[in-house]
Design brief:
Strand order of the largest sheet: 1-28-27-26
Largest sheet: 4 strands, antiparallel
Number of helices: 2
Strand content: over 45%
Radius of gyration: 19 Å
Helix content: under 10%
Order of helices and strands: HHEEEEEEEEEEEEEEEEEEEEEEEEEEEE
Number of strands: 28
């Protein structure tokens, strides 16, 4: 595809940085020790107002952020620094969620309250397509095979877009509150979390209901699949994160260190770590296999988006604006945790 773009100088420096971290193949203690020496957080000014969503490209070279200010910022990772590369503008409303193509590091999609989905090309630094939808879009997911983008709106309508033709190929109206959507790694099952604490699993592309999992007593907010394909996790209003076996559809364990509704979760590149965030003033990092605490990241406000780098132990996140009057400078910043401490 367009992977030749990885051959630049900054990519090689990322690779060197990468090897140091991938060498961490030991157990819990090794991971805990790693974060004792890699606990530095860097902050970057990305937008003029609140950041709603962050995500890394599949090759890990770029970090994107979407904001209430209607724009998308793109940062380039060079060794242990992020440099702002450019800003995409064009949405007429808040950019509420974004996701990258699973295997093409040049393509990014965004969901906006302006009733459109946009696909952006970071190589040309332009919008590659604008797809008009029926409502204000709040969540988006790109199928791992790259062929379909699904977007959910405030009226619980999920729209499926063919990424080759940029045409809508299906719409599904749900009678319950749809909170987040995702595909399994084979792109043949479609998952939704809902307001009744359930996970609905549909076959794809025929969208026939296969399973309903009663995952939580409270609203099921977010869902994420781990990169190895073994697990998925959900975060809930009951402040719990539950870890599920993909093949057996059984809950293996829960993570219970947070006290507020879990808004966002992310698995590390190797599937060993799960980051969870909420209105707690800490991001929890737990070991997937045991549930043990590995590290935590102190924050100063509610955190609504976290994303692990696809090859490194670097966690991008963005918090709510702490105080719009006192600390105007905080508005629109994103942060990355996991750099080597000075």
């Amino acid at each position: 595809m367009m992977l030749a773009a990885q051959s630049g100088g900054s990519s090689r420096s990322v690779d060197r940085f990468d090897r140091n971290r991938i060498a961490l193949s030991g157990g819990i203690e090794d991971l805990q020790n790693h974060f004792k020496t890699h606990k530095k957080t860097r902050e970057y000014q990305a937008h003029t107002s609140k950041v709603h969503s962050v995500g890394w490209s599949c090759d890990g070279r770029r970090l994107a952020s979407g904001s209430f200010d209607k724009s998308v910022s793109i940062f380039l990772l060079d060794r242990d620094r992020l440099n702002k590369e450019f800003t995409f503008r064009g949405h007429g409303g808040s950019v509420d969620q974004l996701c990258w193509h699973a295997s093409n590091p040049e393509l990014l999609s965004t969901a906006s309250g302006d009733k459109t989905v946009r696909i952006w090309d970071v190589r040309s630094q332009k919008s590659a397509a604008t797809i008009n939808t029926k409502g204000e879009n709040i969540n988006i997911t790109w199928s791992p095979d790259g062929n379909t983008i699904a977007v959910g709106n405030k009226e619980d309508l999920v729209t499926f877009i063919d990424t080759r033709t940029h045409k809508i190929k299906a719409e599904e109206q749900f009678k319950f509150e749809v909170n987040e959507i995702s595909w399994n790694k084979q792109s043949n099952l479609f998952f939704l979390t809902n307001g009744q604490g359930c996970i609905h699993i549909l076959s794809y592309p025929d969208l026939q209901l296969q399973h309903i999992l009663q995952a939580h007593p409270g609203t099921c907010i977010c869902i994420e699949f781990d990169p190895t394909g073994r697990y998925f996790a959900t975060g809930s209003a009951d402040a719990l994160v539950s870890l599920w076996d993909v093949s057996e559809l059984v809950c293996l364990r829960t993570f219970s260190r947070l006290e507020w509704p879990v808004r966002t979760i992310s698995f590390s590149h190797d599937g060993k770590l799960l980051a969870s965030a909420s209105e707690d003033l800490v991001i929890d990092i737990g070991a997937v296999e045991t549930g043990e605490k590995v590290a935590d990241v102190p924050v100063e406000a509610a955190t609504f988006t976290v994303a692990w780098h696809p090859r490194l132990y670097l966690l991008a996140y963005a918090c709510d604006d702490k105080d719009k009057y006192d600390r105007k400078s905080d508005a629109g910043s994103l942060k990355v945790f996991g750099f080597q401490s000075d």
